[in-house]
Specification:
Helix content is 57%, strand content 0%. By secondary structure, it is an all-alpha fold.
C-alpha cells in the first residue's frame, strides 16, 4: 500500500456532522470526509501537477556576469530572480520543482504582517507542501515535521523556517551541482555570452 492510499479501516462514512473532527481539516491526521475528497482530488492531479504551477517570477534578462556568478555560489543563484527561474526550470526536469515553490512560498509568508493572512497562507503552505496527502509534498525529516505541527497551532510568518532551511540545504547539496552541469545552464551561459560579444 502506498503512502498516498488510505486503509479501508480508517475511512469513516461521509457525513455533514463530524463530531470528532480533530484538526479543522487542514492537516493530514484525520480521516474525515473532507480530507477523503481532497485526497481523491490530489491523487487525480498528481500526473498533471506541473501544469497548474503558477508562472515564474518576473525579472530582467540577466547579464553574462550574473549568469557566470551563479556558478560561484548557490546564494548568488537564489538571490537572483532570473537565477531562480532558470534553476526552477531545471528542477522541473528532475520532478522536484516543489522544492523551489515551497521556498518561495516561505519567503512570501515572511513578508506578511496581517495575522489573518498569515494564518491563511500558513495553512495553504501546509496543505500544499507539508501534508503527506499532497502530490507536492517536500522531503522533510520527522523532527522538522513535529516542529511545524506544533507551530501550526498558532502560525506565524516564521512557522516554516526550519523546513525552509532544510529544503534550501537539500537543493544546494543535491540539485545545484547537477544544475551547473546541466544543458539548461550551459546553453544559457553560451547564448548570453555569444549575444554579449556580438553587441
Amino acid at each position: 500500500m502506498s503512502r498516498h492510499e488510505t486503509s479501508p479501516t480508517t475511512v469513516q462514512p461521509a457525513s455533514n456532522h463530524r463530531p470528532n473532527a480533530c484538526c479543522f481539516c487542514w492537516c493530514c491526521c484525520c480521516s474525515c470526509s473532507w480530507n477523503e475528497d481532497r485526497e481523491r482530488a490530489w491523487r487525480a492531479s498528481r500526473e498533471t501537477k506541473l501544469e497548474t504551477i503558477p508562472n515564474c517570477e518576473a525579472c530582467a534578462k540577466p547579464t553574462p556576469e550574473e549568469v557566470q556568478g551563479w556558478a560561484q555560489s548557490f546564494d548568488k543563484l537564489m538571490k537572483s530572480p532570473a537565477g531562480r527561474n532558470v534553476f526552477r526550470e531545471f528542477l522541473r526536469t528532475e520532478y522536484s520543482e516543489e522544492n523551489m515553490l515551497f521556498w518561495l512560498a516561505c519567503e512570501e509568508l515572511k513578508t506578511e504582517c496581517n495575522k489573518h493572512t498569515i494564518d491563511e497562507k500558513a495553512r495553504m503552505i501546509y496543505e500544499d507542501y507539508i501534508s503527506i496527502l499532497s502530490p507536492k509534498e517536500v522531503s522533510l525529516d520527522s523532527r522538522v515535521r513535529e516542529v511545524i505541527n506544533r507551530k501550526m497551532q498558532e502560525p506565524s510568518s516564521h512557522t516554516f523556517d526550519d523546513a525552509q532551511l532544510q529544503i534550501y540545504t537539500l537543493m544546494h547539496r543535491d540539485s545545484y551541482p547537477r544544475f551547473l552541469n546541466s544543458a539548461i545552464y550551459k546553453s544559457l551561459l553560451q547564448t548570453i555570452s555569444h549575444s554579449s560579444s556580438e553587441s
